[in-house]
């Protein structure tokens, strides 16, 4: 990977990270239960093991009813 390509990817990651963090970071306090959808995703990840973002996107698209 060329330096300019790596720099572009790093810039894109830095631009997108705040939105991703806010989407998945809990802001409702530590003592409340997770919503069912969040719990289902975490449970699924315990069964599949680590996935790349690309693998998660393909998997989500395959399971999506839309």
Fold blueprint:
Blueprint lengths: L2 H22 L11 H13 L4 H11 L3
Q: How much strand content do the residues show?
A: under 5%
Q: What share of residues is helical? A: 55-70%
CA distance, first residue to last residue: 35 Å
Major sheet description? none
Helical run tally: 3
Q: Would you report the number of β strands?
A: 0
- The average pLDDT score comes to 80
What order do the helices and strands follow? Answer: HHH
Instruction: Please give the radius of gyration in angstroms.
Output: 16 Å
Structural category is mainly alpha
What is the general shape? flat
Low-confidence stretches: none
Give an overview in words.
The protein contains 3 helices and no strands. With 66 residues, it is an all-alpha fold. It is flat, with a radius of gyration of 16 Å. The N and C termini lie far apart (35 Å). The relative contact order is 0.06.
Summary, kept brief:
The chain is mainly alpha-helical.
């Amino acid at each position: 990977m060329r330096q300019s390509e790596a720099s572009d990817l790093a810039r894109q990651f830095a631009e997108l990270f705040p939105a991703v963090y806010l989407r998945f970071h809990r802001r409702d306090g530590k003592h409340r239960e997770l919503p069912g959808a969040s719990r289902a995703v975490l449970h699924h990840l315990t069964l599949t093991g680590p996935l790349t973002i690309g693998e998660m996107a393909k998997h989500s698209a395959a399971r999506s009813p839309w």
